[in-house]
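Regression test case RT-17, inverse folding.

Input:
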């Protein structure tokens, strides 16, 4: 009788541990970055998006997938309704008119071309603050900046920050002596 109880108890423990391990392995983390370049400055070149995914993946220590979308409205739907995208890179103008609290604007991306508009990096508000902080740190890293420059970005900055201007020093010219006789 006691042996039967012990074997049932061991079987329950074995099943519980097996289920726990199975469920934990299914919780593999990955980040999906959505990109809606439109006609305004960024490109969705396959090689550049793959480079960005690898760079962010190595910095975040998790799998990163970069998906391109035809327009910002579709990306917004995949971010908020389907929740298949964790991070959205879209034109900043697409954020205007959205209901308050649906997404969080975490960074700005300035494109290389002066005629192009500003881009915004947005996440869902329920993204844990620690994950949001890690993402911002990774995107502000110079390695990510290099990967984003292949997509057409010149600078990644906190929202509302102007583009950092590279100062070019012009050497001072020596005064020219002229000899004039009076």
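Golden output:
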């Amino acid at each position: 009788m006691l042996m039967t109880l012990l074997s049932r108890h061991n079987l329950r423990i074995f099943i519980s541990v097996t289920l726990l391990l199975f469920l934990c392995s299914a919780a593999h983390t990955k980040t999906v970055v959505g990109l809606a370049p439109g006609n305004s400055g960024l490109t969705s070149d396959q090689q550049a998006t793959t480079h960005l995914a690898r760079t962010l993946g190595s910095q975040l220590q998790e799998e990163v997938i970069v998906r391109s979308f035809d327009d910002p409205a579709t990306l917004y739907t995949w971010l908020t309704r389907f929740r298949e995208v964790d991070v959205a890179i879209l034109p900043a103008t697409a954020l205007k008119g959205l209901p308050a609290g649906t997404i969080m604007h975490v960074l700005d991306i300035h494109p290389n071309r002066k005629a192009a508009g500003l881009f915004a990096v947005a996440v869902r508000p329920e993204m844990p603050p620690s994950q949001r902080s890690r993402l911002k740190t990774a995107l502000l890293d110079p390695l990510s900046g290099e990967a984003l420059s292949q997509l057409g970005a010149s600078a990644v900055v906190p929202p509302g920050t102007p583009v950092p201007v590279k100062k070019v020093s012009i050497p001072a010219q020596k005064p020219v002596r002229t000899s004039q006789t009076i």
